[in-house]
Amino acid sequence: MNIHFIGIGGSAMGSVALACSELGHNVTGSDSNVYPPMSTVLSGSGIVWYEGYSSARLESLPIDLFVVGNALSRGNPELEYVLRNRLSMTSMAALVGQVLIDKNTSIVVSGTHGKTTTTSMTAWILESAGFQPGFMMGGVPLNFPVGCRALQKDVNNSRAGVFVSEGDEYDTAFFDKRSKFVHYRPTVAIVNNIEFDHADIFNDLGAIVTSFKHMLRLVPDNGIVLINSDDANVAAASTNSFAPIQSVGLAEDAFWRASNLLQSSREMSFDLDRDGLHYGNFTINMPGEHSVRNAVMAIAATHFVGVNAQEQQTAFKSFIAPKRRLEAIGTWNGALVIDDFAHHPTAIAATVKAVRNMYPNNKIHAVFEPRSNTTTRNFFQKELSECFDGADTVCVGPINRPERYAVEDRLDTKAIISALISSGINATQIDSSFAETPWGAHVEEFLSGKVQATDIILLLSNGNIGGFRDAVTSIGK
Fold first, then answer.
1. pTM score above 0.85
2. In CATH, what number is assigned to the domain containing residue 257?
3. Would you say residue 300 lies in a domain?
4. Which residues does 173 contact at the CB level (< 8 Å), separation at least 6?
5. What is the pLDDT of residues 390-447, one digit of tens each?
6. Which residues contact 126 (CB under 8 A, 6 or more apart)?
7. Which domain holds residue 42?
Protein backbone atom coordinates (compact mmCIF):
# COMPACT_ATOMS: atom_id res chain seq x y z
CA MET A 1 0.00 0.00 0.00
CA ASN A 2 1.16 3.55 -0.75
CA ILE A 3 0.81 5.63 2.44
CA HIS A 4 1.46 9.36 2.68
CA PHE A 5 1.92 10.97 6.12
CA ILE A 6 0.87 14.62 6.26
CA GLY A 7 2.91 15.92 9.19
CA ILE A 8 5.51 13.16 9.17
CA GLY A 9 8.01 15.15 11.25
CA GLY A 10 6.21 14.63 14.56
CA SER A 11 7.93 12.12 16.84
CA ALA A 12 4.96 9.73 16.87
CA MET A 13 4.04 10.22 13.20
CA GLY A 14 7.60 9.68 12.07
CA SER A 15 8.02 6.57 14.21
CA VAL A 16 4.78 5.04 12.91
CA ALA A 17 5.81 5.87 9.34
CA LEU A 18 9.07 3.99 9.85
CA ALA A 19 7.21 0.97 11.24
CA CYS A 20 4.88 0.93 8.24
CA SER A 21 7.87 1.11 5.92
CA GLU A 22 9.43 -1.88 7.67
CA LEU A 23 6.21 -3.79 7.05
CA GLY A 24 6.74 -3.29 3.32
CA HIS A 25 4.43 -0.36 2.65
CA ASN A 26 5.63 2.39 0.31
CA VAL A 27 5.76 5.40 2.62
CA THR A 28 6.09 9.07 1.73
CA GLY A 29 5.51 12.16 3.83
CA SER A 30 5.58 15.91 4.16
CA ASP A 31 6.08 18.46 6.91
CA SER A 32 7.57 21.87 7.59
CA ASN A 33 10.38 22.94 9.90
CA VAL A 34 11.35 19.40 10.83
CA TYR A 35 14.22 19.34 13.31
CA PRO A 36 16.47 16.68 14.87
CA PRO A 37 16.23 13.97 15.93
CA MET A 38 13.29 13.14 13.62
CA SER A 39 14.71 14.99 10.61
CA THR A 40 17.91 12.97 10.93
CA VAL A 41 16.05 9.69 11.43
CA LEU A 42 13.80 10.25 8.43
CA SER A 43 16.65 11.31 6.17
CA GLY A 44 18.52 8.10 6.95
CA SER A 45 15.47 5.83 6.69
CA GLY A 46 15.02 5.64 2.93
CA ILE A 47 11.55 7.20 3.22
CA VAL A 48 10.92 9.93 0.65
CA TRP A 49 9.65 13.00 2.45
CA TYR A 50 9.24 16.62 1.46
CA GLU A 51 9.84 19.90 3.22
CA GLY A 52 6.65 21.92 3.09
CA TYR A 53 3.15 21.05 1.88
CA SER A 54 2.07 21.01 -1.77
CA SER A 55 -1.22 19.90 -3.28
CA ALA A 56 0.32 19.95 -6.77
CA ARG A 57 2.96 17.47 -5.69
CA LEU A 58 0.33 15.02 -4.48
CA GLU A 59 -1.19 14.81 -7.95
CA SER A 60 1.91 12.98 -9.20
CA LEU A 61 2.15 10.52 -6.29
CA PRO A 62 0.29 7.15 -6.37
CA ILE A 63 -1.20 7.33 -2.87
CA ASP A 64 -3.73 4.83 -1.51
CA LEU A 65 -4.08 6.28 2.00
CA PHE A 66 -3.34 9.62 3.66
CA VAL A 67 -2.47 9.72 7.36
CA VAL A 68 -3.38 13.08 8.86
CA GLY A 69 -1.29 14.23 11.82
CA ASN A 70 -2.86 15.39 15.06
CA ALA A 71 -1.39 18.88 14.65
CA LEU A 72 -2.95 19.39 11.20
CA SER A 73 -5.94 21.69 10.79
CA ARG A 74 -8.12 22.97 7.96
CA GLY A 75 -6.31 25.20 5.51
CA ASN A 76 -3.31 22.93 5.08
CA PRO A 77 -2.95 22.63 1.27
CA GLU A 78 -2.44 18.85 1.28
CA LEU A 79 -5.35 18.28 3.64
CA GLU A 80 -7.58 20.46 1.47
CA TYR A 81 -6.52 18.42 -1.58
CA VAL A 82 -7.53 15.19 0.19
CA LEU A 83 -10.91 16.57 1.25
CA ARG A 84 -11.64 18.20 -2.10
CA ASN A 85 -11.01 14.95 -3.99
CA ARG A 86 -12.63 12.66 -1.39
CA LEU A 87 -9.46 10.59 -1.02
CA SER A 88 -8.98 7.92 1.65
CA MET A 89 -7.64 9.34 4.90
CA THR A 90 -7.19 8.20 8.46
CA SER A 91 -5.52 9.29 11.69
CA MET A 92 -2.25 8.01 13.07
CA ALA A 93 -4.04 6.37 16.01
CA ALA A 94 -6.53 4.59 13.75
CA LEU A 95 -3.69 3.39 11.51
CA VAL A 96 -1.83 1.96 14.51
CA GLY A 97 -4.94 0.13 15.62
CA GLN A 98 -5.77 -1.28 12.20
CA VAL A 99 -2.34 -1.97 10.72
CA LEU A 100 0.09 -2.49 13.60
CA ILE A 101 -2.12 -3.94 16.34
CA ASP A 102 -4.89 -5.57 14.30
CA LYS A 103 -5.97 -8.88 15.92
CA ASN A 104 -2.97 -9.21 18.22
CA THR A 105 -3.03 -8.94 22.02
CA SER A 106 -3.06 -5.23 22.80
CA ILE A 107 -1.52 -3.83 25.99
CA VAL A 108 -2.45 -0.15 26.34
CA VAL A 109 -0.67 1.99 28.93
CA SER A 110 -2.71 5.04 29.94
CA GLY A 111 -2.77 7.69 32.64
CA THR A 112 -1.83 11.32 33.19
CA HIS A 113 1.70 10.43 34.27
CA GLY A 114 4.16 7.62 33.66
CA LYS A 115 2.91 6.39 30.28
CA THR A 116 6.22 6.44 28.41
CA THR A 117 8.20 4.85 31.23
CA THR A 118 5.62 2.12 31.86
CA THR A 119 5.31 1.40 28.13
CA SER A 120 9.10 1.13 27.86
CA MET A 121 9.26 -1.20 30.86
CA THR A 122 6.47 -3.40 29.52
CA ALA A 123 7.98 -3.65 26.05
CA TRP A 124 11.44 -4.43 27.42
CA ILE A 125 10.16 -7.18 29.75
CA LEU A 126 8.44 -8.79 26.77
CA GLU A 127 11.51 -8.39 24.58
CA SER A 128 13.78 -9.85 27.26
CA ALA A 129 11.39 -12.80 27.68
CA GLY A 130 11.48 -13.58 23.95
CA PHE A 131 8.13 -12.16 22.82
CA GLN A 132 9.58 -9.85 20.15
CA PRO A 133 6.67 -7.46 20.72
CA GLY A 134 5.48 -4.61 18.60
CA PHE A 135 5.28 -1.29 20.41
CA MET A 136 4.63 2.42 20.09
CA MET A 137 5.70 5.01 22.65
CA GLY A 138 5.68 8.78 22.71
CA GLY A 139 9.15 9.24 24.17
CA VAL A 140 12.58 8.04 23.11
CA PRO A 141 13.39 4.56 24.50
CA LEU A 142 17.00 3.64 25.15
CA ASN A 143 16.54 -0.14 25.12
CA PHE A 144 15.30 0.06 21.52
CA PRO A 145 16.62 2.01 18.52
CA VAL A 146 13.14 3.24 17.55
CA GLY A 147 9.99 4.48 19.30
CA CYS A 148 7.63 2.35 17.22
CA ARG A 149 8.10 -1.16 15.89
CA ALA A 150 5.82 -3.56 14.11
CA LEU A 151 5.39 -7.06 15.49
CA GLN A 152 8.38 -9.19 14.59
CA LYS A 153 7.46 -11.99 12.22
CA ASP A 154 8.66 -15.31 13.63
CA VAL A 155 6.40 -18.29 13.00
CA ASN A 156 8.47 -20.40 15.41
CA ASN A 157 7.99 -18.01 18.33
CA SER A 158 5.11 -19.29 20.45
CA ARG A 159 5.20 -16.06 22.46
CA ALA A 160 4.71 -13.72 19.51
CA GLY A 161 1.60 -11.61 19.03
CA VAL A 162 1.68 -8.84 21.65
CA PHE A 163 1.67 -5.10 20.89
CA VAL A 164 2.31 -2.47 23.60
CA SER A 165 1.14 1.09 23.02
CA GLU A 166 1.32 4.31 24.97
CA GLY A 167 -2.35 5.22 25.25
CA ASP A 168 -2.70 8.97 25.01
CA GLU A 169 -5.97 10.59 26.10
CA TYR A 170 -5.35 13.54 23.78
CA ASP A 171 -7.75 13.82 20.83
CA THR A 172 -7.10 11.89 17.64
CA ALA A 173 -7.33 14.38 14.76
CA PHE A 174 -9.22 17.46 13.60
CA PHE A 175 -12.00 15.14 12.35
CA ASP A 176 -11.99 12.73 15.30
CA LYS A 177 -12.16 14.23 18.79
CA ARG A 178 -12.12 10.91 20.61
CA SER A 179 -9.03 10.14 22.68
CA LYS A 180 -6.34 8.28 20.76
CA PHE A 181 -6.37 5.27 23.07
CA VAL A 182 -9.84 4.10 21.99
CA HIS A 183 -8.32 3.09 18.65
CA TYR A 184 -5.98 0.59 20.27
CA ARG A 185 -8.75 -1.68 21.65
CA PRO A 186 -6.91 -2.93 24.73
CA THR A 187 -6.83 -6.53 25.81
CA VAL A 188 -4.86 -5.33 28.83
CA ALA A 189 -5.60 -1.77 29.94
CA ILE A 190 -3.28 -0.03 32.41
CA VAL A 191 -4.62 3.11 34.08
CA ASN A 192 -1.77 4.57 36.12
CA ASN A 193 -3.51 7.72 37.38
CA ILE A 194 -6.01 10.34 36.25
CA GLU A 195 -5.70 14.08 36.87
CA PHE A 196 -6.81 17.19 35.06
CA ASP A 197 -4.60 17.94 32.06
CA HIS A 198 -4.85 19.01 28.40
CA ALA A 199 -6.87 22.09 29.19
CA ASP A 200 -7.04 22.90 25.48
CA ILE A 201 -9.39 19.97 24.78
CA PHE A 202 -10.96 18.97 28.13
CA ASN A 203 -13.24 21.33 30.03
CA ASP A 204 -12.85 19.61 33.38
CA LEU A 205 -11.73 16.49 35.19
CA GLY A 206 -15.11 14.84 34.64
CA ALA A 207 -14.62 14.97 30.87
CA ILE A 208 -11.27 13.23 31.23
CA VAL A 209 -12.72 10.49 33.46
CA THR A 210 -15.46 9.95 30.86
CA SER A 211 -12.87 9.52 28.13
CA PHE A 212 -11.10 6.83 30.16
CA LYS A 213 -14.46 5.12 30.71
CA HIS A 214 -14.91 4.94 26.94
CA MET A 215 -11.55 3.21 26.56
CA LEU A 216 -12.21 0.72 29.37
CA ARG A 217 -15.57 -0.26 27.84
CA LEU A 218 -13.59 -1.76 24.96
CA VAL A 219 -11.65 -4.25 27.12
CA PRO A 220 -13.06 -7.76 26.47
CA ASP A 221 -14.19 -10.06 29.26
CA ASN A 222 -11.16 -12.27 28.67
CA GLY A 223 -8.85 -9.27 29.09
CA ILE A 224 -7.93 -7.37 32.23
CA VAL A 225 -8.01 -3.82 33.63
CA LEU A 226 -5.11 -2.79 35.89
CA ILE A 227 -5.91 0.23 38.03
CA ASN A 228 -4.00 2.36 40.53
CA SER A 229 -5.29 1.27 43.95
CA ASP A 230 -4.55 4.71 45.41
CA ASP A 231 -6.35 6.91 42.85
CA ALA A 232 -10.05 7.73 43.32
CA ASN A 233 -10.39 9.10 39.78
CA VAL A 234 -9.14 5.82 38.34
CA ALA A 235 -11.63 3.93 40.49
CA ALA A 236 -14.43 6.13 39.14
CA ALA A 237 -13.37 5.49 35.55
CA SER A 238 -13.29 1.72 35.99
CA THR A 239 -16.81 1.25 37.35
CA ASN A 240 -18.99 -1.13 35.31
CA SER A 241 -16.01 -2.74 33.60
CA PHE A 242 -16.89 -5.93 31.73
CA ALA A 243 -13.31 -7.14 32.17
CA PRO A 244 -11.79 -8.35 35.46
CA ILE A 245 -10.10 -5.60 37.48
CA GLN A 246 -6.88 -5.93 39.45
CA SER A 247 -5.66 -3.08 41.64
CA VAL A 248 -2.00 -2.13 41.69
CA GLY A 249 -0.15 0.01 44.22
CA LEU A 250 0.97 0.43 47.80
CA ALA A 251 -2.42 0.06 49.52
CA GLU A 252 -2.71 -2.93 51.84
CA ASP A 253 -5.71 -4.29 49.94
CA ALA A 254 -4.12 -3.92 46.48
CA PHE A 255 -4.18 -7.12 44.40
CA TRP A 256 -0.62 -6.32 43.30
CA ARG A 257 0.98 -4.70 46.37
CA ALA A 258 4.47 -3.24 46.56
CA SER A 259 6.01 -2.88 50.01
CA ASN A 260 9.34 -2.35 51.77
CA LEU A 261 10.45 0.26 49.23
CA LEU A 262 14.14 1.12 49.52
CA GLN A 263 15.94 3.74 47.47
CA SER A 264 19.69 3.48 46.96
CA SER A 265 21.08 6.21 44.72
CA ARG A 266 19.29 5.71 41.38
CA GLU A 267 17.80 2.30 42.25
CA MET A 268 14.58 1.23 43.94
CA SER A 269 14.13 -2.18 45.56
CA PHE A 270 10.78 -3.52 46.73
CA ASP A 271 8.83 -6.63 47.65
CA LEU A 272 5.76 -7.53 45.61
CA ASP A 273 2.72 -9.56 46.64
CA ARG A 274 0.07 -10.87 44.27
CA ASP A 275 -3.36 -11.51 45.79
CA GLY A 276 -1.82 -11.73 49.27
CA LEU A 277 0.99 -14.12 48.29
CA HIS A 278 4.66 -13.20 47.85
CA TYR A 279 5.42 -12.83 44.14
CA GLY A 280 9.04 -11.66 44.14
CA ASN A 281 11.71 -9.13 45.08
CA PHE A 282 12.54 -6.54 42.43
CA THR A 283 15.17 -3.87 41.80
CA ILE A 284 14.72 -1.22 39.12
CA ASN A 285 17.23 1.27 37.76
CA MET A 286 15.01 4.29 38.43
CA PRO A 287 14.47 6.26 41.64
CA GLY A 288 11.21 7.29 43.26
CA GLU A 289 7.99 5.78 44.52
CA HIS A 290 6.29 6.68 41.23
CA SER A 291 8.82 4.50 39.39
CA VAL A 292 7.85 1.55 41.56
CA ARG A 293 4.19 2.05 40.63
CA ASN A 294 5.14 2.10 36.95
CA ALA A 295 7.19 -1.07 37.34
CA VAL A 296 4.43 -2.97 39.13
CA MET A 297 1.98 -2.06 36.36
CA ALA A 298 4.44 -3.46 33.81
CA ILE A 299 4.89 -6.61 35.91
CA ALA A 300 1.13 -7.17 36.23
CA ALA A 301 0.53 -6.62 32.50
CA THR A 302 3.29 -8.95 31.36
CA HIS A 303 2.27 -11.59 33.92
CA PHE A 304 -1.15 -11.67 32.27
CA VAL A 305 0.38 -12.63 28.91
CA GLY A 306 2.63 -15.30 30.40
CA VAL A 307 5.87 -13.77 31.73
CA ASN A 308 7.02 -15.09 35.12
CA ALA A 309 8.68 -13.28 38.01
CA GLN A 310 12.18 -14.55 37.27
CA GLU A 311 11.97 -13.35 33.67
CA GLN A 312 10.74 -9.96 34.86
CA GLN A 313 13.53 -9.67 37.42
CA THR A 314 16.09 -10.46 34.72
CA ALA A 315 14.60 -7.84 32.36
CA PHE A 316 14.80 -5.04 34.94
CA LYS A 317 18.53 -5.63 35.36
CA SER A 318 19.09 -4.32 31.83
CA PHE A 319 16.25 -1.81 31.61
CA ILE A 320 17.27 1.76 30.77
CA ALA A 321 14.87 4.61 31.41
CA PRO A 322 13.67 6.58 28.35
CA LYS A 323 15.28 9.88 27.52
CA ARG A 324 14.21 12.87 29.60
CA ARG A 325 13.14 10.69 32.54
CA LEU A 326 15.55 11.75 35.29
CA GLU A 327 18.26 11.70 32.64
CA ALA A 328 21.71 13.01 33.52
CA ILE A 329 22.55 15.04 30.41
CA GLY A 330 25.81 16.75 31.37
CA THR A 331 27.31 19.31 33.68
CA TRP A 332 27.17 23.07 33.99
CA ASN A 333 29.95 24.83 35.92
CA GLY A 334 30.72 21.45 37.44
CA ALA A 335 27.17 20.75 38.65
CA LEU A 336 25.30 17.66 37.42
CA VAL A 337 22.32 18.54 35.19
CA ILE A 338 19.32 16.19 35.33
CA ASP A 339 16.62 16.55 32.67
CA ASP A 340 13.04 15.40 33.30
CA PHE A 341 9.88 15.71 31.21
CA ALA A 342 7.82 16.61 34.31
CA HIS A 343 5.62 19.65 33.69
CA HIS A 344 2.45 18.82 35.66
CA PRO A 345 2.60 19.74 39.40
CA THR A 346 2.11 16.14 40.53
CA ALA A 347 4.94 14.94 38.29
CA ILE A 348 7.16 17.84 39.40
CA ALA A 349 6.62 17.00 43.08
CA ALA A 350 7.44 13.32 42.49
CA THR A 351 10.57 14.17 40.49
CA VAL A 352 11.91 16.69 43.03
CA LYS A 353 11.27 14.16 45.82
CA ALA A 354 13.11 11.42 43.92
CA VAL A 355 16.11 13.66 43.23
CA ARG A 356 16.17 14.83 46.85
CA ASN A 357 16.27 11.19 47.98
CA MET A 358 19.06 10.48 45.49
CA TYR A 359 21.12 13.45 46.66
CA PRO A 360 20.08 14.15 50.27
CA ASN A 361 23.09 16.39 51.02
CA ASN A 362 23.37 18.32 47.75
CA LYS A 363 21.74 21.60 46.82
CA ILE A 364 19.06 21.25 44.14
CA HIS A 365 18.43 24.10 41.70
CA ALA A 366 15.14 23.50 39.85
CA VAL A 367 14.31 25.23 36.55
CA PHE A 368 10.67 24.99 35.47
CA GLU A 369 9.25 26.01 32.10
CA PRO A 370 5.47 26.70 31.97
CA ARG A 371 4.91 25.42 28.47
CA SER A 372 2.02 22.93 28.27
CA ASN A 373 -1.52 24.02 27.47
CA THR A 374 -2.45 23.36 31.09
CA THR A 375 0.47 24.87 33.02
CA THR A 376 0.46 28.11 31.03
CA ARG A 377 -3.00 28.80 32.47
CA ASN A 378 -3.96 29.31 36.09
CA PHE A 379 -5.62 25.91 36.65
CA PHE A 380 -2.72 24.81 38.88
CA GLN A 381 -1.82 28.18 40.37
CA LYS A 382 -1.86 26.85 43.95
CA GLU A 383 -0.36 23.45 43.11
CA LEU A 384 2.58 24.96 41.21
CA SER A 385 3.34 27.07 44.25
CA GLU A 386 3.63 23.94 46.42
CA CYS A 387 5.25 21.25 44.27
CA PHE A 388 8.91 22.28 44.61
CA ASP A 389 9.35 21.11 48.18
CA GLY A 390 12.90 19.76 48.47
CA ALA A 391 14.49 22.21 46.05
CA ASP A 392 16.86 24.89 47.36
CA THR A 393 16.35 27.34 44.50
CA VAL A 394 13.71 27.59 41.78
CA CYS A 395 13.78 29.48 38.51
CA VAL A 396 10.45 29.77 36.66
CA GLY A 397 10.78 30.52 32.96
CA PRO A 398 8.48 32.72 30.90
CA ILE A 399 5.00 31.49 29.98
CA ASN A 400 4.98 29.99 26.51
CA ARG A 401 2.82 32.01 24.08
CA PRO A 402 1.02 34.02 26.80
CA GLU A 403 -0.96 35.98 24.22
CA ARG A 404 -3.29 32.98 23.82
CA TYR A 405 -5.06 33.79 27.08
CA ALA A 406 -6.50 36.79 28.84
CA VAL A 407 -4.33 38.07 31.68
CA GLU A 408 -6.79 36.82 34.30
CA ASP A 409 -6.60 33.29 32.81
CA ARG A 410 -2.82 33.01 32.67
CA LEU A 411 -0.55 31.41 35.22
CA ASP A 412 0.66 34.12 37.61
CA THR A 413 4.37 33.35 37.89
CA LYS A 414 4.97 36.33 40.19
CA ALA A 415 2.55 34.85 42.71
CA ILE A 416 4.33 31.50 42.50
CA ILE A 417 7.67 33.15 43.18
CA SER A 418 6.22 35.04 46.13
CA ALA A 419 4.81 31.82 47.61
CA LEU A 420 8.10 29.98 47.13
CA ILE A 421 10.09 32.75 48.78
CA SER A 422 7.66 32.72 51.70
CA SER A 423 8.35 29.00 52.12
CA GLY A 424 12.08 29.60 52.32
CA ILE A 425 13.06 28.76 48.73
CA ASN A 426 15.31 31.13 46.81
CA ALA A 427 13.19 31.75 43.71
CA THR A 428 13.00 34.02 40.69
CA GLN A 429 11.02 34.31 37.47
CA ILE A 430 12.10 35.17 33.94
CA ASP A 431 9.72 37.74 32.54
CA SER A 432 7.31 36.61 29.81
CA SER A 433 8.68 39.27 27.49
CA PHE A 434 11.54 36.82 26.88
CA ALA A 435 9.20 33.95 25.87
CA GLU A 436 9.94 34.25 22.16
CA THR A 437 13.71 34.67 22.61
CA PRO A 438 16.49 32.25 23.61
CA TRP A 439 15.99 32.95 27.31
CA GLY A 440 18.38 30.22 28.43
CA ALA A 441 20.98 32.93 29.01
CA HIS A 442 18.77 34.29 31.81
CA VAL A 443 18.76 30.83 33.41
CA GLU A 444 22.55 30.91 33.40
CA GLU A 445 22.44 34.36 34.95
CA PHE A 446 20.22 33.07 37.76
CA LEU A 447 22.41 30.02 38.39
CA SER A 448 25.69 31.93 38.30
CA GLY A 449 27.01 32.53 41.79
CA LYS A 450 24.65 29.94 43.26
CA VAL A 451 25.88 26.70 41.72
CA GLN A 452 28.82 24.73 43.05
CA ALA A 453 30.38 21.56 41.66
CA THR A 454 28.54 19.34 44.16
CA ASP A 455 25.10 20.77 43.30
CA ILE A 456 22.29 19.39 41.13
CA ILE A 457 20.51 21.38 38.41
CA LEU A 458 17.08 19.88 37.71
CA LEU A 459 15.32 20.81 34.46
CA LEU A 460 11.54 20.37 34.52
CA SER A 461 9.95 20.87 31.12
CA ASN A 462 8.46 19.34 28.01
CA GLY A 463 10.45 21.94 26.10
CA ASN A 464 14.04 23.17 25.81
CA ILE A 465 14.37 25.66 28.72
CA GLY A 466 14.96 28.54 26.33
CA GLY A 467 17.96 26.80 24.77
CA PHE A 468 19.66 26.05 28.10
CA ARG A 469 19.09 22.29 27.72
CA ASP A 470 20.74 22.21 24.29
CA ALA A 471 23.62 24.31 25.61
CA VAL A 472 24.27 21.76 28.35
CA THR A 473 24.15 18.76 26.02
CA SER A 474 26.50 20.43 23.54
CA ILE A 475 29.22 21.03 26.14
CA GLY A 476 32.12 18.71 25.45
CA LYS A 477 30.91 17.65 22.01
1. yes
2. 3.40.1190.10
3. yes
4. 68, 69, 70, 72, 91, 92, 93
5. 999 999 999 888 888 888 888 899 999 999 999 999 999 988 776 667 888 889 988 9
6. 132, 133, 162, 164, 302, 305, 307
7. 2-87
